[in-house]
Amino acid sequence: MIQFPRPLRLESRSSRLSHPPAIRRAFRSAQQQLSHLIRMMAPVLLALSFASVARAQGTMDFSGAQTLMGTFKTFAMYAGAVICLGGLIFAGIRMMSGRFQDAIPGLFGALFGAGVLGWGAGWIGSLTGQSM
User: Roughly how many angstroms between the first and final C-alpha of the chain, as a whole number?
Assistant: First the structure.
């Protein structure tokens, strides 16, 4: 008769992982001290980070904002011209076909485009100190 060897038995888990109570208390105490230290230092680290950001504020350069606002002003001028021209073309086609009542929305569109062209570009230019 063939006999197979018995599988080795592992030691019970509690005997392998057991630590003396003094080590467990020391570990718990160290964990509590670390969490207490983190809670104490968090406000200080937060205040220091804000202080460094406030110090860097004087080095900000806004020359790119001038360029960006100039781009917005140019866009407002072109958009206003396109809206105004589109509204006039729409109104003109309706008027030529004899439907004057249908041309009124096109005329308001042209008026809106003129407002974007004049007031929009003028307002953006006043923000940047540029004239038309």
Answer: 108
Cβ–Cβ under 8 Å, residues 108 and 84? no
Dihedral of CA atoms 76, 78, 84, 87 in degrees, nearest 10, equals -110
pTM of the full structure: 0.46
User: Is residue 1 very low, low, confident or very high in pLDDT (cuts 50, 70, 90)?
Assistant: low
Q: Is the pLDDT of residue 111 over 70?
A: yes
Which DSSP string corresponds to 27-67?
HHHHHHHHHHHHHHHHHHHHHHHHHHHHHHGGG---HHHHH
Angle (nearest 5°) at CA 36 between 32 and 38 = 120
